[in-house]
Design brief:
about 140 residues, mainly beta, Cysteine Rich Protein, 2 domains, 8 strands, Actin-binding LIM protein 2
Length: about 140
């Protein structure tokens, strides 16, 4: 993009808006390092009694069907959201500082809201004058 930012509707130059192009908001989507959606693998665990694998949540020995997430093991009932306790075995989740968090709580706790529409932003963003917008919400006063 050139040296100015323009309204997404009428292409008017937005004075004082700075320069730049839409960018990806780091840590706010499900593909990044800080906020990732690791693969949870259902396994049937067959270990000898002397080498028990412990559940990362409750600390008890894992037997039968367990989940393995990022080299950690969980009873299926123990793999829950750190914030609300919701079951994470079937749905998407984020990891933040070692805690597993459901997508709704992650967005509520760490999401970024659009300055224009006040909805959470995922994916591409436009940042100008210290504010963050959806690309389609970044419009001039006339088009608003």
């Amino acid at each position: 993009m050139g040296g100015w930012l323009g309204c997404c509707c009428c292409s008017r130059h937005l004075a004082g808006a700075g320069t730049g192009a839409p960018a990806r908001l780091p840590g706010r989507t499900q593909g990044g390092q800080a906020a990732s959606q690791p693969q949870a693998a259902h396994r049937h665990l067959e270990k000898s009694p002397g080498s028990a694998i412990l559940c990362n949540n409750c600390g008890k020995a894992c037997k039968g069907e367990v989940l393995r997430v990022q080299k950690k093991y969980f009873h299926i009932k123990c793999f829950v959201c750190k914030a609300c306790g919701r079951d994470l075995a079937e749905g998407g989740f984020f990891v933040r500082q070692g805690d597993y968090i459901c997508t709704l709580d992650y967005q509520r706790l760490y999401g970024t809201r659009c300055f224009s529409c006040d909805q959470f932003i995922e994916g591409e963003v436009v940042s100008a004058l210290g504010k963050t917008y959806h690309p389609h919400c970044f419009v001039c006063v006339v088009c608003r």
